[in-house]
Design a protein that fits this description.
There is one protein chain. The chain has one domain. The two termini are about 30 Å apart. It contains 14 helices and no strands. It has helices spanning about 5-10, 15, 20-40, 40-45, 55-75, 80-105, 110-135, 140-160, 170-190, 195-220, 225-255, 255-260, 265-280, 285-300. Belongs to the EamA transporter family. One of its GO terms (cellular component) is membrane.
Amino acid sequence: MKTQSSATDAGPIAVTAPRPERRTLGTALAALGVAAFSLTFPATAWGLEGFGPWTLVTVRSALAALVAGGALLALKVRPPERRHLRGLAVVALGVVLGFPTLTTLALRTSTTAHAAVVVGLLPLTTAVCSALRTGHRPSGRFWLAAVAGAVAVLTFTVVQSGGALTAADGYLFAALLVCAAGYTEGGLLAREMPGWQVIGWALVLCLPLTLPAAALALSQEPYRVTAHGIAGLLWVALGSQFLGLVVWYRGMAAIGVPRASQLQLAQPLLTLVWSALLLGEHFTAAAPLTAVAVLVCIAVTQRS
């Protein structure tokens, strides 16, 4: 900061408060991450057409780690500092290993519409996790809008899935908790290092586990090479597991974890659209009404 003018040092608000253009860019990046994540469940369903669940989980993580590790090596990025290892471990356990494993196991018996319930709860869970982790307390209006949006999404997705609870719900609720922790910790780390390095190092830390696990799964589980299977695997590995998280963590660093997490209120609706287009699933005319309600809630949280 010494190379800056004295005007920069005169007021700490200039450093801590995000500029309007930074908030706009951060919101756009977080929204791009949500768009990438909205394809995860349909892509996983495609992947399961050709691969077993353990093969899909381990190969996607190993492939994403190899790409991330290659980028880190090519750009000669220094290894993370020791103080960052704890946070990276939380990201690795929650986002790299926990969420993909639990949701893939759930999607063996659950439809993507039913699995979208967990995504409807994720913004609220992430905001709560962030508040507990950082001690930050969002306003009452923020929480009211967040809860209202979560209720709207939950009501819509439960109705779309027929209101039936399945054995996969245990996997989905566990995935919800570990993913919220990973998102929160990753958003905090992205304030100190580029977002792509956060997920990149988390993936690389898991490589000694995921690479041999992928080889073992391929040798034990039957698989068949299909267009859907390969496309689904490539998307969950590179789109959801790496590129989506790169822009997502960058967006969270710019606008804050609670505000970014509320953009995910739109994710279940996007997932249902992709499910209809890619998997042939159908949903009722309630979708536009729910979409409007969710967008109103997102607008309120953004202004709070």
